[in-house]
Amino acid sequence: MAEEKVTTSAVKKARGFFGEFREFINRGNVMDMAVGVIIATAFGKITTSLVNDVVMPAIGYFFGGTDLSKLNIILKPEVIDAATKEVLEPAVAIGIGTFLTTIIDFLLVALVVFCVIKFMNSAKDKMEAMKKKEAEEAAEEEAAPEPSAEEKLLMEIRDLLKEQKQ
């Protein structure tokens, strides 16, 4: 056992850091995870666009035509130089509209993920039910009951009567 540990650590040292890294990257689950992250990033962009370009303008329209993503709570107004129209101190504001947009974005992503998982679980349940039904049918076919002694005797009598009629 001790020799085995020494051998594996010696092999790891021989491969080196980059050899181990290459082995880690070439595993299938790492590649699957990378594809998932890429797709999730693209999906995030789609939902953000949906929220910013479709949902929020529609909500803003129903609230009097305002752009809710620009809705802010001003804590301290900006200070402007009257002569040069230059901003001396920027405003301090809470971006409640941006926060609402982010919440709606999250809720849409969560809804879509929920629907996808629900669909996958439903499909998985149906596949398992089909496999279970097929297994039960196969078991029924294989386990045809052996005729009882009485049934065997009746079959023999039937066969003898057939022979006598011929």
Structure notes:
The structure is a single chain. This protein has 166 residues and is mainly α. It is 74% helix and 7% strand. The protein has a two-stranded antiparallel sheet with strand order 1-4. Strands 2-3 form a two-stranded antiparallel sheet. Strand 2 (79-80) and strand 3 form a beta hairpin. The termini are far apart.
Write a compact overview of the structure shown.
This protein is mainly α and 166 residues long. 74% of the residues lie in helices and 7% in strands.
Strand content: 5-15%
Q: What is the C-alpha radius of gyration, as a whole number of Å?
A: 36 Å
* Bulk shape: elongated
Main β-sheet, spatial strand arrangement: 1-4
Termini Cα gap: 79 Å
Percent of residues in helices: over 70%
Order of helices and strands: HHEEEEHH
Biggest sheet features: 2 strands, antiparallel
Say how many strands there are. 4
The number of helical runs is 4
The average pLDDT value, as a whole number, equals 83
**Helix- and strand-based class?**
mainly alpha
- The poorly predicted ranges are none
Question: Which short descriptors sum up this protein?
Answer:
mainly alpha; 4 helices; about 75% helix; elongated
Summarize the topology.
Layout: H1 2-25, H2 28-62, E1 73-76, E2 79-80, E3 87-89, E4 92-94, H3 96-142, H4 149-165
Antiparallel strand pairs: 1-4, 2-3
